[in-house]
Amino acid sequence: MTKISVVMAVYNEEENIKTCLESVKNLAWEIVVVDGGSVDQTIKIAKEFGARIIQTKNPVNFHVNKNKAIAAAKGEWILQLDADEVVSVELLNEIKKVVDCQGINGYWMPRKNFFLGRFLTKGGQYPDYTLRLYRNGQGKLPARDVHEQAEVVGKVGYLKNDLLHLRDKNFSNYMQRFNRYTSLFAKQLEESGTKINVFTFFNFTFFLPFFWFIRAYLRHRGYVDGFPGFIFALFSSLRFPVGFFKYRSHYENSR
């Protein structure tokens, strides 16, 4: 039987990790968890599933810790998950079949995102393809951007069944992620040397949020998902001005 390493990076995920690991316990040859200093029951729960724990710091860009988990994996294939994701039974059975195929080094899988009480079906959120399954040694994350995908050497294919992303069960959870993502975006603006002038002010506070909202809510029909679809489109567009003002504040305080 092909050996599959389930890997993840976590931080205070006691509310999610049990459901995640329960969904892959009949698939994983090993489970590797890189913990960024959790102070809840995350590690205890992971150990109940036989996970190998690697403890480290919790960087702003958590993809750094994901790469640590990937590097520590010993299986033939790697399935990289977030603690708030669940592998459906249909996807689990599909994975078992495709890992025996030759000539393909990785697979994209469709992801269904749960947001404020429902799975989003429009707004560019489904199918939210993500590259999470790849041969060991053939894939890793660039660790530059929070929304990046893994880079896989060689041919990749597509799976048919859904990965379930139970990410935002309430607005408070979403705002925590929103704050983290906008801080990372501000850091990226700083690292890229973005200048603060009239053009960038207009671009990040008007043009980009307006364009993104129209794209998500109207072009990709986010309105079909009702109020959650509206809130998702709105706050997705607001990440640009919020991130920009965080960067601007840090820039002015450092002068």
Shape, principal axes of CA atoms: globular
* Intertermini distance: 59 Å
- Total beta-strand segments: 13
Order of helices and strands: EHEHEHEEHEEEEEEEEHHH
CATH architectural grouping of the largest domain: Alpha-Beta Complex
Helix content: 40-55%
Query: How big a fraction of the residues is strand?
Result: 15-25%
From the alpha-carbon coordinates, what is the Rg to the nearest angstrom? 19 Å
CATH topology of the largest domain: Spore Coat Polysaccharide Biosynthesis Protein SpsA, Chain A
Number of domains: 2
Overview of this structure, please?
- The structure is a single chain.
- The chain is an alpha/beta fold and 255 residues long.
- The chain folds into two domains: 165 residues, Spore Coat Polysaccharide Biosynthesis Protein SpsA, Chain A, CATH 3.90.550.10; 83 residues, no CATH class.
- It has seven helices and 13 strands.
- A seven-stranded mixed sheet has the order 3-2-1-4-9-6-12, with helices on both faces.
- Strand 7 and strand 8 form a beta hairpin.
- The longest helix is centred in the last third of the chain and has 28 residues.
Give a nutshell description of this structure.
The chain is of the alpha/beta class and 255 residues long.
Keywords for this entry:
globular, alpha/beta, 7-stranded mixed β-sheet, 255 residues, 13 strands, 4-stranded mixed β-sheet, 21% strand
Secondary structure: elements and pairs:
Blueprint: E1 4-10, H1 17-24, E2 30-35, H2 42-48, E3 52-55, H3 63-72, E4 77-80, E5 85-87, H4 89-98, E6 106-109, E7 111-115, E8 118-119, E9 130-135, E10 139-140, E11 151-152, E12 156-158, E13 163-168, H5 171-191, H6 198-219, H7 226-253
Parallel strand pairs: 1-2, 1-4, 2-3, 6-12, 7-13
Antiparallel strand pairs: 4-9, 5-13, 6-9, 7-8, 10-11
Helix pairs in contact: 5-7, 6-7
